UniProtKB/TrEMBL annotation:
Protein name according to UniProt: Uracil/xanthine transporter
Entry GO MF terms: xanthine transmembrane transporter activity
Membrane topology, as annotated: Multi-pass membrane protein
Transmembrane segments: 16-38, 50-69, 75-95, 102-122, 128-150, 162-182, 188-208, 220-246, 275-302, 314-334, 340-358, 370-386, 398-421
UniProt keyword terms in alphabetical order: Membrane, Transmembrane, Transmembrane helix, Transport
Pfam family, one: Xan_ur_permease
Main location: membrane
Superkingdom of the organism of origin: Bacteria
A GO-annotated cellular component: plasma membrane
Entry-linked NCBIfam families: NCS2_1 (NF037981), PRK11412.1 (NF008502)
Organism in which the protein naturally occurs: Paenibacillus sp. SYP-B3998
Family per record: Belongs to the nucleobase:cation symporter-2 (NCS2) (TC 2.A.40) family.
Cell location: Membrane
Thylakoid keyword on record: no
Length: 441
């Protein structure tokens, strides 16, 4: 089957490989440092992350939701874990206690996703996930990702100072990718992400030649609970349960949006299979010291940019990504990809998500009252994103990661507003202007 595929699909698969890599590589690295793991354990986490993410994407494309949508380490969990790690010492908890509590919380979240998903919880979520809620989620996700990528483009050091040369090259790469997408032929435009990463990587090596050190040897791939054995840190477990429910809503946002590109309707069976796979791999993540999994709504940005909707491309990319984890030399090679290059390319790719968010709320009338239903959650989320984490230190440690997460709080507020407020009674009928009201030139 694979040998009969066109070069176009193989190239699209390589593009998916780079997309998965640039979205995944920093997660196990940052978590390994947060939990003070050794180089061998971090290398093992990288390999596990590559293998599980690649295999899960293949299974989702073949049997789960059956779209070209990446399933990988969920960003909403990333903020929770890093926040808990940074706050552990101030409340007298060891990293092992935090890690063990998270392992228990991840297991509970996976069980919740599997059970609720199999019971048809997606049908309930679809009812309350109005176009406004999906629009809010997409707006906030776009803003969060693009801001992070922009900071990564600038080559900031620990003091928050930008590297002018790295920033200049990143801007040139971003403009180059944008021009390919806007001015290139349909074929060339479809591979703008791949072209941008390859050309950007070569340019970076030419301007900033580096000597690559040997990669640390990975430890045992079968060792379990590197963060700490499961325990009963009730606060962490309950917070993980809430975040797990929010992560389930991300599946609704993602599949409800991407189905329009495929001009089809996602069935309840597809939702159930998707939740089952994500839940099972989340359980594996708790055992292997990885973040729980979730659908990447950011995949929409790639699909919008490339217009390649073939599931086979994702399957090829997932297979290559899993292969990186099985061959340490390859994962070491890809680990040398400059983060500023990946961030510059993804910055352009994710701009497409902003357009998707706009189309989601297109046609919905707004006036001075109904504008609250989107302005309040979006602007609250942005405000929280721009508030220093220390500002939430007055809250209990278990509430800080949730309250300090602008994306989560924005979506929660949007859901509450849609359920509690009857917006129809605030929608004023649009009346035509009289002759006296019309502006004169």
């Amino acid at each position: 089957m694979l040998t009969k595929m066109s070069p176009k699909i193989w190239l699209a698969g390589v593009q998916w490989l780079f997309f998965m890599f640039t979205n995944t590589i920093v997660v196990p690295l940052s978590l390994g440092h947060a939990f003070q793991l050794g180089p061998e354990e971090i290398a093992t986490s990288l390999q596990r992350s590559f293998i599980l993410t690649g295999v899960l994407c293949i299974l989702q494309a073949l049997w789960g939701h059956r779209y070209a949508v990446m399933d990988g380490p969920a960003g909403i969990w990333w903020g929770l874990v890093l926040n808990l790690c940074s706050s552990a010492q101030s409340v007298g908890m060891s990293m092992t206690e935090v890690g063990g509590g998270l392992a228990s919380g991840f297991l509970l979240a996976s069980l919740t996703m599997i059970v609720l998903g199999s019971l048809g919880f997606a049908s309930f979520l679809k009812k309350i996930f109005t176009p406004i809620v999906m629009g809010v989620s997409l707006f906030l996700l776009t803003i969060q990702l693009v801001v992070n990528f922009f900071k990564g483009m600038l080559g900031m050091n620990s003091a928050g100072e930008i590297d002018i040369k790295v920033a200049a090259l990143s801007i040139v790469i971003a403009i180059f990718v944008a021009m390919i997408h806007l001015k290139g032929s349909r074929l060339i435009s479809s591979y703008s992400i791949l072209i941008g990463i390859v050309v950007g990587w070569i340019a970076y090596e030419l301007f900033f030649p580096t000597t690559h050190t040997a990669q640390a040897q990975a430890g045992s791939m079968l060792a379990v609970f590197p963060w700490g054995a499961p325990n009963l840190q009730i606060g962490i477990i309950l917070t993980s349960f809430i975040v797990g429910l929010i992560n389930m809503t991300n599946t609704i946002t993602c599949l409800s949006t991407v189905e329009k590109m495929y001009q089809t309707k996602t069935t309840d069976a597809q939702y159930k299979r998707s939740y089952l796979l994500t839940g099972v791999f989340t359980a594996l993540s708790s055992c292997f010291g990885l973040l729980p999994f979730g659908l990447f709504t950011s995949s929409i940005g790639l699909l919008e940019s490339t217009k390649i909707l073939e599931r086979r491309a994702l399957i090829i990319g997932g297979g290559m990504f899993a292969l990186l984890g099985l061959i340490p030399a390859l994962s070491g090679l890809f680990s040398s990809l400059p983060s500023s290059v990946g961030n510059a390319v993804l910055f352009v790719a994710y701009l497409q998500m902003f357009g998707t968010a706009l189309r989601t709320i297109q046609g919905i009338p707004f006036n001075s009252k109904t504008v609250y239903r989107i302005a309040l959650p979006v602007l609250l989320g942005i405000s929280i994103m721009n508030t220093p984490p220390q500002a939430f230190s007055v809250l209990p440690i278990y509430l800080r990661p949730l309250v300090g997460n602008g994306l989560a709080m924005g979506v929660i507020l949007s859901l509450v507003l849609e359920v509690v407020v009857n917006w129809r009674k605030y929608e004023l009928p649009i009346t035509p202007l009289t002759a006296s009201q019309k502006p004169t030139s």
